[in-house]
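Narrative summary of target 7.
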Amino acid sequence: MKPNDTPDDSLRAAPQADEGFTIAGRSYASRLLVGTGKYRDFDETRAAVDESGTGIVTVTIRRVNIGQHANEPSLLDAVPPDRFTILPNTGGCYTAADAVYTLQLARELLDGHPLCKLEVLGDDRTLFPNMPETLKAAEALVKDGFDVMVYCSDDPIQARILEDLGCVAVMPLASLIGSGMGILNPWNLSLIIEQAKVPVIVDAGVGTASDAAIAMELGCDGVLMNTAIAGARDPIRMARAMRFAVEAGRDAYLAGRIPRRFAAAPSSPMAGRIV
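Modeled conformation, tokenized:
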């Protein structure tokens, strides 16, 4: 590139700083959150968690032992709470009452740990969130002192109500849980991101690294996934790919993409050509 082909630095916007990723007053280096289900064993779980670089690991209390079954191996032996933030979730709950009870149990098992992920499902075929029950559970949990991160539909109005109730993060689905279909409605996600004053974390539907990168490029604060890693042919390698994808997507968002055009634009300026 000739000197006169160099973009005018005076036309560039000032670099946008990454303000960091903070949930309920605690900061994390990674914006990737990972689940612990569907792995071959706890050793594979730990290897994937390590490779992902995550600081937050979510655990389905109804399916994974974290001490409620004293005579069985505990996930906490493989993923210790002194190294990772354990995020108990209510996967498998279909009513507000069940979800609240499950998280109260988890809080006892985790020595008063208030951070939790709420999900109340509508049915066992779609695993779509039951929003009336989700709202009811969120209100009860916030009043009980929990820091609630909440799985929800990609409806901006519902997301705003959850934020107003006091949830510390909203987690709209990209597509159905475990579907790997990626982000089906980026416009709704953009509306939620635009209005939110709490972190917005895509939860459910991520299938591969490009899905995670797109979520971050849209301006999401983080991405949570389980099946996309645990169900891959090589979970450890996929965990690494997801780590890089989240980082690259965040950098691209902060850098600012070029506008989409309906006509070509030459890479080199036309002015000052020799011929």
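Confidence is low (pLDDT under 50) at residues 1-8.
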